[in-house]
Amino acid sequence: MKHHPKTLILLALLAACGTAGAETLLVERVAQKPAVAQPARGLTMAEVEARFGAPSEKLDPRGGQKRQWPTINRWVYPDYVVYFEKNRVIDVVAHKASPEEVGPKPPIR
After folding, report:
1. Residue 94, Cβ neighbours under 10 Å: how many?
2. What CA–CA distance (Å, rounded) separates 108 from 33?
3. What is the mean pLDDT of residues 56-82?
4. How far apart are CA 70 and CA 92, in angstroms?
């Protein structure tokens, strides 16, 4: 019985897909959790600090070398990282719950 290389590759890919089913996606976990209060897009740094308290860490700003590249500030809270462009919230990213969870990498320090 002659096997075609394409068939063998397809079978190998299908076998590998079965093992990925046990992973938890960060997006799925966040969607299942009850809504945790997080800063909304557009809030200022002062508003975030007043509503959510001081961050556990304020990371060094990134960017700003050119006029087209705004300075991005990052504040670390226990459950998430808040990203600011200049003085306003542009995004909030949840932390991974465990090493097996698929999600964003930790922020570069």
Report:
1. 18
2. 26
3. 92
4. 17
How far is the C-alpha of 24 from the C-alpha of 90, rounded, in Å? 26
d(CA 62, CA 86): 11
CB 57 within 8 A of CB 64: no
What is the per-residue pLDDT across 70-105, written as a single tens digit (0 to 9) for each? 999 999 998 899 999 989 999 998 876 666 766 666
For 4, the token pair is 């075609």
DSSP 1-60: -PPPHHHHHHHHHHHHHHHGGGPPBHHHHHHHSPPPP-PPTT-BHHHHHHHH---SEEEE
Judge whether 88 and 77 are in contact, CB under 8 Å.
no
Listed in order, strand segments (DSSP E) in 52-87 are 57-62, 72-76, 80-85
- Let me know: does 94 contact 26? Beta carbons within 8 Å: yes
